[in-house]
Design brief:
Pfam families: YdjM
Largest sheet: none
Keywords: Hydrolase, Membrane, Transmembrane, Transmembrane helix
GO molecular function: hydrolase activity
Structural class: mainly alpha
Strand content: under 5%
Bound molecules: zinc ion
Distance between the termini: 35 Å
Number of domains: 1
Order of helices and strands: HHHHHHH
Protein name: Metal-dependent hydrolase
Number of helices: 7
Number of strands: 0
Radius of gyration: 15 Å
Organism: Peribacillus psychrosaccharolyticus (Bacillus psychrosaccharolyticus)
Helix content: 55-70%
Shape: globular
Length: about 160
Amino acid sequence: MTGKTHLMGGVAGTIILIHMNTYDPLLFISAGAIGALLPDICHSGSKIGRRFKGLSKLINKLFGHRTITHSLLFLILMNMLVAFLTTNEGIRVGILIGMVSHLLLDAATKNGIKLLYPLKLTIRFPLTIRTGDKGEAVVMALLSLLVLYYSKDVLIHYL
Ligand SMILES: [Zn+2]
């Protein structure tokens, strides 16, 4: 999936949970958006990879694309790192949800993900799409509708 779709996935993943928690909505959603971009640090052409080129190239050289950074191991390690860096639960949970949304979206692509890395098993949904094709446009449209619908919860919070 493209960075735009991942970004929308992270926003959608967090915004639909706004009414179920007491986190600051904008902080929670922002954390979701950032978390949704993190797994593609393994790809130097990605939104986050372009920002951290050196780190991105190193991770790509060591592990390749869509391996460790698209796994449960990465979720656990990043969750521990974020918990070490901040005591704000909204940020930690938001980043986690963003990363989960990323893995779900990439599992819906033909290449799938190495969810159980270091096992080489590729995980993908039975129905997949290609990055950048019409299927992704449909996913993006659905995510946008979700975000639009649930943005009322954000408004209610701040009114
Ligand atoms: Zn990815």
